[in-house]
């Protein structure tokens, strides 16, 4: 028994990110070797995703309530402008990177378009997107997991609390009530972060199951023909993360070491790679921002949920790669104005799209329609999308965190003298806790 507990403590002393990383590799190999039967593990993986999803709305509400206390409308306007501006610029650059790399490699050149089914998608109406920010029914929005209207309501509510607290016409009782609200939010956020690390412990098994199911389903034969497409995307996202996120944002604008940044956000990056959902990863992204990157709630509680819905560098970049891939398949080449259209459509569509698995594939329909390319391409690549989606989602999260770091620095809302900036990041509770 004592040997068992020694093994257990040794296992727990390995940072969670390494354990999940190992599960990722072992699960993939297991899926490839075992094949179809490995898909039976899917429910174990779904449980991990569901456990994380359970935390999304509470963690947004608690942290945002704390953040909103320190936000005046002018500060919110400034931070909001900086966040949205950087999100838009980095998304545009991402599509350009995708187009650039794909133009060099031409990933679809030796392939035949076969067996693909056309899929339909409608462009999100920009008026609906903007109207959707205001919740008609805030409980309904929370229940549906709609992030933007929840952000809107909590900011308005948090700000109103701060205004009431500052007015000298309110009773002692009301002031005490407001204080308890903030205390509740602080306690709630702390509890949520604890739960996140507990869920990540289960994530080791969950990620093994998810990867086994994906590779068990796809199999080597289904993946091989798309190897060049996968490599093109891998190269493009690596370049984008290295040049724009790490080089431009973290090093140049925030003046920090990219290694320390990556160490601080690694749990979120690995989770994104594993579950392919920016929204589902949000609780981990927020924990990393708070506990490792030492960013203040006044910035991350707002910028990260917003980023999970409107900032998708990886998804936008993929549109560039896929557009060239589709053009290769039918043997045409895209003119410069057509490639510019891809940038505009991809950036706009990524703003209205939800951060859930497969969004990038559906968005591709819009891009192909715009270019007059066959919609069958969407069905053609659908089989390998679970692999491509991982890289997109990880890039999306890296974009959210790097922009948040820069905006936090601009607003004196980050502590570069602690957390992963000076040493090892905090992970789950130590083994003997
Ligand atoms: N799965 C991605 C995300 O959640 C979106 C996509 O399909 O590219 O961020």
Automatic annotation (TrEMBL):
Keyword check for Membrane, yes or no.
yes
| Predominant location | membrane
User: GO: which molecular function terms?
Assistant: symporter activity
Q: What InterPro entries does this protein's entry cite?
A: Na-dicarboxylate_symporter (IPR001991), Na-dicarboxylate_symporter_CS (IPR018107), Na:dicarbo_symporter_sf (IPR036458)
How would you describe this protein's topology in the membrane?
Answer: Multi-pass membrane protein
Protein localization: Cell membrane
Native organism is Halolamina pelagica
GO BP annotation list: carboxylic acid transport
List where the protein spans the membrane. Answer: 16-35, 47-67, 79-105, 147-164, 202-220, 226-254, 316-336, 342-368
**Taxonomic classification, please?**
Archaea, Methanobacteriati, Methanobacteriota, Stenosarchaea group, Halobacteria
User: What's the protein here called?
Assistant: Na+/H+-dicarboxylate symporter
Which is a Gene Ontology cellular component entry for this protein? plasma membrane
What keywords would UniProt list here?
Cell membrane, Membrane, Symport, Transmembrane, Transmembrane helix, Transport
């Amino acid at each position: 028994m004592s040997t068992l507990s020694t093994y257990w403590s040794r296992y727990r002393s390995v940072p969670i990110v390494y354990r999940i990383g190992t599960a990722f590799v072992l699960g993939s190999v297991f899926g490839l070797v075992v094949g179809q039967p490995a898909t039976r593990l899917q429910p174990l993986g779904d449980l991990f995703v569901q456990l994380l999803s359970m935390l999304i709305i509470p963690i947004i509400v608690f942290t945002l309530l704390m953040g909103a206390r320190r936000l005046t409308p002018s500060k919110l306007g400034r931070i909001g402008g900086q966040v949205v501006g950087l999100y838009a610029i980095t998304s545009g650059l991402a599509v350009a990177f995708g187009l650039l790399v794909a133009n060099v490699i031409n990933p679809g050149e030796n392939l035949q378009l076969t067996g693909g089914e056309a899929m339909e998608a409608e462009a999100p109406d920009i008026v609906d997107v903007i109207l959707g920010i205001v919740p008609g029914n805030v409980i309904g929005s929370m229940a549906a997991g709609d992030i933007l209207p929840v952000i809107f309501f909590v900011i308005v509510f948090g700000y109103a609390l701060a205004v009431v607290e500052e007015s000298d016409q309110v009773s002692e009782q009301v002031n005490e009530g407001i204080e308890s609200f903030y205390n509740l939010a602080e306690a709630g956020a702390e509890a949520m972060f604890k739960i996140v690390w507990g869920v990540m412990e289960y994530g080791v098994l969950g990620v093994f199951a998810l990867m086994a199911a994906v590779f068990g389903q796809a199999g080597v034969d289904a993946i091989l023909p798309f190897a060049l497409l996968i490599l093109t995307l891998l190269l493009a996202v690596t370049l984008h993360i290295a040049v724009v996120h790490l080089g431009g944002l973290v090093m140049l604008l925030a003046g920090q070491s990219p290694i320390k940044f990556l160490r601080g956000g690694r749990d979120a990056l690995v989770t994104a790679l594993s579950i392919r959902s920016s929204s589902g990863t949000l609780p981990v992204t927020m924990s990393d921002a708070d506990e490792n990157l030492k960013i203040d709630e006044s910035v991350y509680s707002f910028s990260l949920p917003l980023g999970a819905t409107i900032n998708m560098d990886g998804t936008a970049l993929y549109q560039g790669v896929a557009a060239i891939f589709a053009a290769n398949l039918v043997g045409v080449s895209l003119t410069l104005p057509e490639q510019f259209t891809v940038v505009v459509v991809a950036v706009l569509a990524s703003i209205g799209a939800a951060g859930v698995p497969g969004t990038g594939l559906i968005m591709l329909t819009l891009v192909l329609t715009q270019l007059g390319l066959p919609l069958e391409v969407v069905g053609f690549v659908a089989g390998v999308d679970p692999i491509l989606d991982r890289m997109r989602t990880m890039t999306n999260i890296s974009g959210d965190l790097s922009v948040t770091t820069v905006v936090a620095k601009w607003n004196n809302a980050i502590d570069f003298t602690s957390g992963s900036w000076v040493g090892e990041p905090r992970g789950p509770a130590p083994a003997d806790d």
